[in-house]
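Hey forum,

I'm writing up a methods section and want to include a predicted complex as supplementary material. The small molecule is zinc ion. I've pasted the protein sequence and the SMILES. Can someone with a working setup run it? I'll credit the forum in the acknowledgements.
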Amino acid sequence: MAKRVTLGTAAAVPGTIQYGRWDAITHPTGHVDFMPVIIAQGKADGPCIWLTAGIHGPEHAGPSVLYQLITQELVDRLRGTIVAIPALSPAGLRTQQYVPYHLPKNPNRMWPDGKPPKPQDPDKEAPSSVELAFARLFDSLLETADYMIDFHNASIGSISFVFRDRVLYRADQNAEENRKKAVALAARQDAMIEAYGHTVVTEFPAKHYIKEDLHRSTSGAALLLGHVPGFTAELGTGLMPDAAIVAAAAAGTRNVLRWAGMLDGGLEPISGIKIADPGFRTRRSPATRVDRPCVVLHLVQAGDIVKVGDPLADLRDIWGRPLENNILRAQHDGYVIGRAHGIYFYPGQTVLYLSVRDEDPIVAPYPKDYFQ
Ligand SMILES: [Zn+2]
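Reply by user p_vandermeer:
Happy to help. Structure tokens for the complex are below, copy them as they are.
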């Protein structure tokens, strides 16, 4: 008996691809933003994976992966169900902006936070339209999703990579049991990411991860609150999707389906993209900055492995003359995720995105006062 999976007006029919709408936000003008829903279900039973994209308006590679991936030919071989949403932020995609015009905040930090409900503080705004929509969508995700992937883009020319969320657990009650479950969940997440086969960047250490509200990202909330193994896939350049990265992400996703028992056969090779593997675990780092206004001539490219002391950039004045101590050097071992856009920088600005050696645990307790 096939799983009954429905979302909005779309309802799974075994052996087919169904299309529908999920009403997300009603504007004061009466207009409704819906999220487009695609439900692809194989004739044979199997797990359910949610594939989401388009939460940031200038990031067009993720929707492209979904359009390329979900075909009748795939459904003919599929066991289980794919629920795909190519436009989590219709307002952002409409204007090609990172944030919705009616709520200029990062929507990928607006999923439920898991804190106990509190009486509304009259001096604070009530939950926003986006938070209310995501809270409803999250309930639907928890009803059906066994796995999930949320597709994004990082910066122009960056490599394709996975952001692996930390797995946080409650230590204020049943700490040992919760820790064991978190360790098991992290192992599932790890195996799923390995099947996808692209470069892996672990998120910030736990305290910084919470401070940045990354636990309220799409994949973070699904993993931490829903215990749904998954990850964020970053697919290089956003507004000019790279065909090789899109194809490699579709192949990586099919490999995840194989790992999950939803497709037969061995893993496809991931080819045509750079994969950075320095031989140790690495994490997100915001730290490569300049200390003065300058022109930056980058000496490394996305995907390059770097060691402490390696030259990263040559700092010049506007005439092109080298500044004093003009070579910016690596402070950490790791690799280059991508260069920051442009060559002109103010003091304190980041000029490169590096993934650096990670010595913090993947599984960690929530901060002590989190649930108070
Ligand atoms: Zn994004």
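Some notes you might quote in the supplement: The chain has eight helices and 20 strands. Residues 56, 59, 108, 152 surround zinc ion (CB under 6 Å).
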